[in-house]
Amino acid sequence: MTDIKIDRSLALEARTWPFEEAKKVLGRLAGKTPEKGYVLFETGYGPSGLPHIGTFGEVARTSMVRHAFHCISDIPTRLICFSDDMDGFRKVPTNVPNQDMLAQHLGKPLTKVPDPFEKYESFAHHNNAKLNEFLDSFGFDYEFKSSTVTYQSGEFDEALLKMLEKHDEVKRAVIPILGEERAGTYSPFLPISPKSGKVLQVPILEVKPNAGTVVFEDEDGTKTEVPVTGGHCKAQWRPDWALRWYALDVDYEMAGEDLIASADIAGKITEILGGKKPAGFHYKLFLDEQNQKISKSKGNGITVEEWLTYAPNESLSYYMYQRPTSGKKLYFDVIPKAVDEYLSFAGKLPQQGNEPDKQLENAAFYIHEGKMPPETPVSFALLLNLASASNAQDKETMWGFIKLYSPEASPENNPLLDRLVECAVKYYEDFVVPTKQYRLPDDRERAALEDMANRLEALPDNADSEALQTEVFSAGKENGYDQKELREWFKAIYEVLIGQEQGPRFGSFIALYGKDKTIALIRDALSGKFAQAA
Fold first, then answer.
1. In whole angstroms, what is the distance from residue 198 CA to residue 91 CA?
2. Rounded distance, CA 110 to CA 267, Å?
């Protein structure tokens, strides 16, 4: 792909959300390279389950901000995906094997819980591997970091000792959001039992900053003293978040709107430790068709795998790009629109070469990180209508039509289009076929459709989509559809000929499906063939 060259002064004037976020990072640094020598972007992952659409969204959006930062600064950057794999195993998932075995390891760090799939060193190692595989499949540029390794290697030791020294201040930062009972026994430290190996949420009986230790009562009732360093203790999750921000000197991390209060507390703890809260924003959570929050336990949303069954990767990135601080519905009906909106932006980006300010407003600029996207001659809506009209059940049938429409296109030289064809066939089978409902035309519609067939017959075989669209308009206007009623005319075309209420420009559909086949389609519909079959 060709790189898009953007003048830095122009980039600094950009107003899209990735640039606004990038400028917040630059402002936080006062334009100077941090002592560590780079800007650190971070995303977090809880390996108690497999990566999901929220994981994708956070990494994709953070990568967009990171790309925008590269456009306005030469300071090197890193992106870390941090796995909280030292977290205690709290609940056995219902969708994994060997559940009785897993139940015996509740409370242990996730890296000490055996892998129920019997493939990796631990359950966390399994899910971490799946995370890396997941992120690699999208081509993200990131570094993986394990909480267990970071604690046990001593990388957090200095910060943990600082947190021990500031124990009461850190505690006071968290207590206001806790219930009365928990507030009375709360400590930012979770000791790991030397006997059971479990992460214990127990009262800390004594804090010894000079010794670097805490004292607690172990599960068997014995009074036990352990260091807070070296992986003998883990921080509670809000202090743990702050610990990462402080110890790693994180410059940017976004989070969901449900974590606003927790992020504020983590920011206060970071300052107590002597650090600075990273820049970032809180994105809105996804909603289902009934405006209910998406929940993994309810299963009322779309998984990444489900989205990618019906649409290419780029469309999901586009969906993550648009309005991250506004609530968006996430259900199957949004997919075709998201695909075609992405394709529209991708098609415009090369045309905006003489208007770089427009390129910076183009979603495809962020999705492809400043590289020119591949071109495709056909929209997803057109492919869906082609599948519907031809009853296509395989890619080969679809490609037969596409090659007549665009002879230079092939699966080999346009893999994106090939992927779109594959997705269109699958979406058609699963969502269009069950809802197709043909109807017979009324008298005015019949006259207009007959006129349209006659007009198409009179056109040369090489008529382009504009000429075809003109005749479609003319057939409607000449048969009583005035300017205000043209929407009804096109709705009738799709209901009678395709069995659905809407579609793309019909002239483009004719050009793709073929003039003669469209004429035959019209005459079959007028004979009642489709309505009777339905």
1. 14
2. 26
Mean pLDDT of all residues in 417-436:
94
Decide if 307 is inside a domain: yes
Residues present in the chain in total = 534
Are the C-beta atoms of 67 and 366 separated by less than 8 Å?
Answer: yes
Same structural domain, 470 and 493:
yes
**Residue 533 reports pLDDT greater than 70:** no
Q: Say how far apart CA 152 and CA 85 lie, in whole Å.
A: 12
Give the C-alpha distances (Å, rounded to integers) separating 464 from 116, 201, 517, 527.
59, 71, 15, 28
Q: Which of 21, 30, 29 is nearest to 68 (CA)?
A: 21
Pairing of strands 189-191, 233-235: antiparallel
Q: Is 175 exposed, middle or buried (CB count within 10 Å of its CB: 0-12, 13-18, 19+)?
A: middle
Domain extent, residue 341, equals 286-367
Residue with tokens 């699963």: 430
- Percent of the chain exceeding pLDDT 90 equals 84
Distance CA 483, CA 61 (A): 43
Does residue 66 contact residue 104 with C-beta atoms inside 8 Å?
A: no
3-state helix, strand, coil in the chain (%, to 5): 50, 10, 40
Let me know whether 348 and 393 are in one domain.
no
- Structure tokens, 51: 């990566």
Q: Is residue 93 part of a domain?
A: no
**Which of 191-209 are b and which e, b meaning 16 or more Cβ less than 10 Å from the residue's Cβ?**
bbbeeeebbbebebeebee
Q: What is the mean pLDDT of residues 42-63?
A: 91
For every residue of 41-91, DSSP letters joined together read EEEEE-TTS---HHHHHHHHHHHHHHHHHHHH----EEEEEEE-TTSB---
CB 297 within 8 A of CB 308: no
Q: Is residue 404 part of a domain?
A: yes
C-alpha 381/C-alpha 336 separation (Å) is 7
Residue 222 neighbours by CB distance under 10 Å: 11
- Let me know if residue 427 belongs to a domain: yes
- List alpha helices for 104-236, DSSP H: 123-137, 147-152, 157-165, 167-174, 180-185
Return the residue matching tokens 């402080």.
Answer: 246
Q: Do residues 503 and 481 share a domain?
A: yes
Number of domains in the chain: 3
Task: Provide the whole-model pTM.
Answer: 0.92
Of the residues 318, 341, 367, the one at which a domain ends: 367
Are residues 345 and 316 part of one domain? yes
Among the listed residues 206, 249, 237, 200, the one whose alpha carbon sits nearest the alpha carbon of residue 220: 200
The answer to whether 31 and 243 are in contact (CB under 8 A) is no
**Mean pLDDT, residues 442-452:** 97
